[in-house]
């Protein structure tokens, strides 16, 4: 029996995860709905003054994006763990590093990528200057990739727990802070008329480091959780 090559296997795994995600639109809609609801509530708490909302818009948008990603991270591996598919994945001849990367990529496409695409709409709701919107979208594209990879580590470590939602928050939230700082910093720099490129470069470096290291940590975490 021929063994599938690693690229073909990971491509099929990515397609499978995307199809499963699209069959459960509520799981895709939850982070987006949460994002929209929280953005809509901020004018009630801060007041409807456009100038006030525009000042806080970069931090608001990034904090809500972070929490939306956190909301979806817990379920990355849980359904496969419950039906036994995860054990079969660990026994597959293909490297678990690339399989874990395919899982995280699917989760990012269904959450972080969609948030980045819809971010201009939410930015307009908060009165963010149009000149800062490209920096916002670019920072979210890079930053949510890092968030998904770091969230995948927490998901792998807690997948065997019945209620891992709070634990995953405690584990990975401190590692989200640098992404939040430089992501919102890019938008604030664009608002001030400065270049957002240094902040985006740092986010890009974080993403490269996360792509290199996080899948290995996810693979180790999955083996620990399944063997436990």
UniProtKB/TrEMBL annotation:
Query: Could you name the Gene Ontology cellular component terms for this entry?
Result: plasma membrane
Coarse class of the primary localization is membrane
Topological relation to the membrane, as annotated: Multi-pass membrane protein
Family matches, as Pfam families:
CcmB
Where found, per UniProt? Cell inner membrane
Which keywords annotate this record? Answer: Cell inner membrane, Cell membrane, Cytochrome c-type biogenesis, Membrane, Transmembrane, Transmembrane helix, Transport
Membrane spanning stretches: 31-46, 53-71, 100-128, 140-161, 167-187, 199-222
Its Gene Ontology molecular function terms?
heme transmembrane transporter activity
Q: Which GO terms describe its biological process?
A: cytochrome c biosynthetic process; cytochrome complex assembly
The task this protein performs is described as: Required for the export of heme to the periplasm for the biogenesis of c-type cytochromes.
Family label: Belongs to the CcmB/CycW/HelB family.
Protein name, UniProt field: Heme exporter protein B
Q: What is the source species?
A: Kineobactrum sediminis
